[in-house]
Amino acid sequence: MAHRTLIASHRGGSYLWPENSLMAFRETAKLAVDQVEFDVQLSADDECVVIHDPMLDRTTDARGPVRGRTLAELRRIRLRGAHGECIPTLAEVVRIYRGSPILLRVEIKADADRIHYPGIGPKVLDVLEAEGMLGQAAITSFQAPMVAAIRDTKRFGGTLIWLCAPQVWHDIGMDMAFATARGCGASGIGIHHALLDPAVLAAARAAGLSPGAWGLKEASDIRRVLDLGVDIFTSDDPVAALEMRG
């Protein structure tokens, strides 16, 4: 079997280590994964922080939007099950992988209303550049305008990926999804694993896009995408995925 790039999702914390915690990122750095995926939101004072949800409710001991708290206030909020850890900054996560072969897969998120945080794209690039990791990162987003905005900065020469939500896929269709990915400057498209089949993979490649799978949680899902032959896949359970990939 050809090598299939494995991305460890930070949401793997729900399987192995506390989600969003520096502990989870340090443990992931010990694995033979190719990339590590995580999400960036903005605090009230425009600091880049790493947390999946735009709301604090699910993974912390607080409630309300991440954007509603300054970094100092977020530092006083504890992650659930993380032994007193708080939400990490992007810089703190990035430093864990400095000197590592693992590529950073940075997903730029929108707020709870699915609106871009003002200036978040350049701010993410600023942190990556300051930490000397701009060349060791790929950037993804579910919002095509954000992918295009990163492209248009002319500052980022790495891989850009548009993640296509299942509802968007159903609404606009496969051909338009591929056209959207190409139009925003993405070289790859992330597709929910349940939508993938050999015809979709072949069509993506014919469109000049690298097809990837996301949303994998069960062993049966991992086995299926490995058998399909996707270029790259994201798993919430990287240990099991490593074993199955061999």
Question: Topology, pairings included?
Answer:
Elements: E1 5-9, H1 22-28, E2 35-42, E3 48-50, H2 71-74, H3 90-96, E4 103-108, H4 120-130, E5 137-141, H5 144-152, E6 160-164, H6 166-172, H7 174-183, E7 188-192, H8 198-206, E8 210-216, H9 219-228, E9 232-235, H10 238-245
Parallel strand pairs: 1-2, 1-9, 2-4, 4-5, 5-6, 6-7, 7-8, 8-9
Antiparallel strand pairs: 2-3
Helix pairs in contact: 6-7, 9-10
GO molecular function: phosphoric diester hydrolase activity
Domain GP-PDE: 5-245
Protein name: Glycerophosphodiester phosphodiesterase
What does this protein structure show overall?
This is Glycerophosphodiester phosphodiesterase. One of its GO terms (molecular function) is phosphoric diester hydrolase activity. By secondary structure, this protein is α/β, with parallel strands linked by helices. The chain is built from ten helices and nine strands. The chain has an eight-stranded parallel barrel, surrounded by seven helices. Helix 5 links the parallel strand 5 and strand 6 (160-164). The model has no long low-confidence stretch (mean pLDDT 94).
Strand content: 15-25%
What would you report as the Rg, rounded to the nearest angstrom?
Answer: 17 Å
Stretches where pLDDT falls below 50 for ≥5 residues? none
Q: CA-to-CA gap between the ends? A: 9 Å
Would you report the number of β strands? Answer: 9
Protein name: Glycerophosphodiester phosphodiesterase
Pfam families: GDPD
Organism: Neoroseomonas oryzicola
Domain GP-PDE: 5-245
